[in-house]
Design goal:
It is a single chain. The chain is built from twelve helices and no strands. By secondary structure, it is mainly α. Helix 6 crosses helix 8 (130-143), helix 9 (153-162) packs antiparallel against helix 10 and helix 10 crosses helix 11.
Length: 244
């Protein structure tokens, strides 16, 4: 891909076209990876309360800060846990173990230096053994049917911000799409902790985070309108829904 400000190689599509193509591919897989938004009421029968999820999200954030994990790792771990809880009822101990297995597995997929089993044995103060974690990891994999690359709000936000590239100068001053993506992902971090957003596809939530980011960066209205036109051209499957 050509660097910013550099001419495109012969036949190379603009960056915004590549982002749109990848975004279309992402939304095609959203239904496969979506958890049940009502799993707390419909699935959980062993004592899970509404407070458990926010607490484990805060713990994920603490791990992210302490071990410099990628935001995408935390988003993937959250997806794994929500999908697991959409199929398996958990008590307090099994919920904690499933949470650990989720972040452990996500780190293997996304991080260059993933967690080791011994790390979580230590972090759990001996509550869980290495064998406990390995067995739960296997159960998690089977429950998720080995579908381990979920479309996340963070991934969609990056692609949506990429649609800002190559917007004609006539639309207004250039907007730094990377700054917009960073701000959108910061909003996505907050969204991750709120189970109410499970009602919506990740790409729909991502559109909202980018709109908030554009507003926060005082993007010119003409640029925002040009960006919205590009989003419409992607033809997101829910674009005509009443609450879209």
């Amino acid at each position: 891909m050509a660097a910013a400000g550099q001419p495109l190689a012969c036949g190379e599509p603009p960056s915004s076209v590549i982002a749109a193509t990848r975004l279309r591919a992402l939304v095609q897989h959203e239904d496969l990876y979506r958890p049940r938004p009502d799993y707390l009421e419909a699935v959980q029968r062993d004592g899970m309360s509404p407070q458990w999820r926010p607490k484990i999200m805060a713990w994920f954030d603490q791990l992210g800060d302490s071990f410099q994990l990628k935001a995408e790792t935390l988003a993937m771990a959250t997806n794994y846990l929500d999908r697991y809880l959409s199929r398996r009822s958990c008590g307090n101990v099994s919920f904690q173990l499933a949470s650990i297995a989720s972040i452990f597995l996500a780190s293997k997929i996304e991080e260059t230096r993933p967690f080791r089993t011994s790390d979580f044995v230590t972090l759990s103060d001996g509550l869980f053994t290495a064998s406990d974690l390995r067995l739960m990891e296997l159960e998690l994999l089977c429950t998720l049917k080995w579908h381990l690359n979920p479309p996340t709000v963070h991934a969609a936000a990056h692609l949506l911000a990429g649609l800002l590239e190559d917007i004609p100068e006539a639309a207004g001053p250039c907007v730094d799409h990377e700054e917009v993506a960073d701000r959108a992902c910061a909003y996505a971090d907050k969204v991750r902790a709120d189970a109410a957003f499970l009602e919506y596809p990740p790409s729909m939530v991502a559109v909202a985070t980018v709109i908030c980011a554009l507003k926060a960066t005082d993007a010119p209205i003409d640029v925002v309108q040009a960006w919205m036109a590009r989003v419409e051209q992607v033809r997101l499957p829910y674009a005509d829904a009443p609450d879209a």
